[in-house]
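Subject line: Sequence and fold of a protein, written as structure tokens
Enclosed: The protein record, placed directly beneath this head.
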Amino acid sequence: MSQTYLTTAELAGRIKYDIRTIRDHLKDKVLLEGVHYIRPFGGRKILYIWEAIEKDMGQRSKDALTIPLANGGFIRG
């Protein structure tokens, strides 16, 4: 399966967030290394995986009215 890799600026354009917001508030809190982004060849550059981000953005919206439980389940409110 082919994946679409985006720079931080390209991702910001797609999701309509400021680049600094992505770097300071989303990366490593919501967007996780190995799931939503990679560091090719072990370098400093970050490439975001669009398909993973798009999938999780839709899932988060669907789960907006849920309450997480300690065992990993959810209560829908």
Observations:
- DSSP finds three helices and five strands in the chain.
- The CA atoms of residues 23 and 45 lie 12 Å apart.
